[in-house]
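WARN retry 2 of 3 for item q-0093 after timeout on previous attempt; input resubmitted unchanged.
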Amino acid sequence: MTRDFTAGNYRYIPALFQYSSGAAALPDYEIERVRFDTWLPLGEGFARIADYIRAAGRPLTSFCACELRSPAVVDEAGFRTFNEHYVKTLAEWGLFDGTNNPVARSNVCLEIDPPSEPSFYAFSFVREAKGAGPSFVIAGGAEARSGPGTYPERIVRYRETSADALREKARMTMNTMEERLGAFGFGWKDTTATQVYTVQDFHPVVADELVKRGAARQGMTWHFARPPVVDLEFEMDTRRVMREIVI
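OK item q-0093 returned
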C-alpha cells in the first residue's frame, strides 16, 4: 500500500493526482513541520518554502506535506480546477510526474476570517537525521467513501448534521485515519498531534468516537473550518513529528 519516493527520502500512500494519503520518512531521515505565523498566498508560499528547504541543504523533492487554507468551499469542478493549478509547481519541483503525487495535504476553509486566496498554513519536508525514530504525516480525510461516484454519492449521511449523523461521519473519518496509519505500520499510540476540522457541534461524539479510540492521545486541535468540497462536514489529519517550528 506504500511506495518509496527515493528522491525525497520518504515513502507515501498513493491516492489521487492532487495528493497522497500520507508520507513517512525513510530510515535515517525525519520530517520537520514548519508553520507560517502569517499565511502566505500559494505562489509566495511556494517560493518561501523553496528558500527554506534549500537553506536546510535539502532538495525540493524532500517536500512531503502541506496544510492549506482556502477562501471558501467549492464544488467538484472547482476543486479539480484548483488542484490542476496546485500540482504545476509540484511537477516543476520533480514531485509530480503527471500521475503519481507523493505529497500529502490538508486543505480546509475557515468559516470566520478566511484568506482572500488559497494560502499556505504549514508545510513539512524530510531532512537527514541519523538514527532518528519514525515520523509521518497523514493527509486530511473527510467523511467520503473511497471509490467511484460523485461526492453526493460517497458522502456519509449526505447533507445531514444531526448528532447521529455526525457520529457516523466521525466514525468514517476515524476509520480512514486508522487505515492510513496502518498502511505505514502505525496506530494512534504513535501520533504526536491530531487536528479536527468542522463547524458543526461534534462534542457529543468526541468521547466515544475519538478519545476512546486513541485520537486524543496528545490532545486534539480543533479548527473552526470546513473541508474544501461543498457538503463535507468533518475532516481530520494526524502526524508524528518531533521537530516543529513557526516562522
